[in-house]
Design goal:
By secondary structure, the protein is of the alpha/beta class. 39% of the residues lie in helices and 22% in strands. It is built from seven helices and seven strands; from the N terminus they run ααβαβαββαβαββα. The protein has helices at 4-12, 25-32, 50-58, 70-79, 117-127, 154-164, 194-221, and strands at residues 41-44, 63-67, 86-90, 100-105, 128-139, 165-172, 184-191. Strand 4, helix 5 and strand 5 form a beta-alpha-beta unit. Helix 5 (117-127) crosses helix 6. The N and C termini lie far apart (71 Å). The chain binds S-adenosylmethionine. The site of S-adenosylmethionine has 20 residues, from strand 2.
Amino acid sequence: MLDAQYWNDRHKDSDTPWNLRTISPPLKAYMDQLEDKQVRILIPGAGHAHEARYLVSLGFEDVTICDISEVAIGHIRSELSSISCIHYICGDFFTLEGEYDVILEQTFFCALDPLLRESYAQKMAALLSPKGTLAGLLFGVEFPFAGPPFGGQMDEYKILFSKYLYIHEMSMCYNSIAPRSGNEIFFICKKKVFGEKLTHYFLFFRMMTLSCAVFRDIKERF
Ligand SMILES: C[S@@+](CC[C@H](N)C(=O)[O-])C[C@H]1O[C@@H](n2cnc3c(N)ncnc32)[C@H](O)[C@@H]1O
């Protein structure tokens, strides 16, 4: 069972092969182009929280890291204790509350039981602010072993994420680290906003009425 005990044991035993010991290049490139340093950023399943360190070095002022493992949170807290703009949440992502402008995904989705994927997408949508963005990396490959990590395919991610979020970008990653090259997908999703949905319905309705008027006109002429 992939509960707090499981993740605590992995962190205690330093059984953390996912740890890149630095920020991943695709996330670095994404963070480098974020201009507004006041945005509220969430890193769920943060582990060693390399993203948080990098964000702080760029001048971001509101970074929240969440991890279910108290061991992981304990390590990061002691390492980064001098940095006041990092907030720590030791708890289950699925019970998180609050609102974030940017949420970063880095080997958290693949660490979850695949049965939770629907809840993940739903929860992400709930945590994003109206103009919020979820961005990060997903494995675009099925692994020949029992997870975690659990793999997947872009087509299935598109179906899942589009239920709750607008997919702004989802493509194979060009700047993965060598061992993950060809196996990673970079994605950016935006919160679905009710007003935007209404605008789409309105535009669709308007197009339908215009088309009907054109057809009526053609029919009358002939
Ligand atoms: C594969 S590790 C990735 C860590 C980090 N993102 C990285 O790439 O180095 C997954 C992390 O998610 C945490 N985790 C697993 N389930 C969680 C949950 N439901 N809520 C919050 N954190 C969770 C684990 O403790 C672990 O640190």
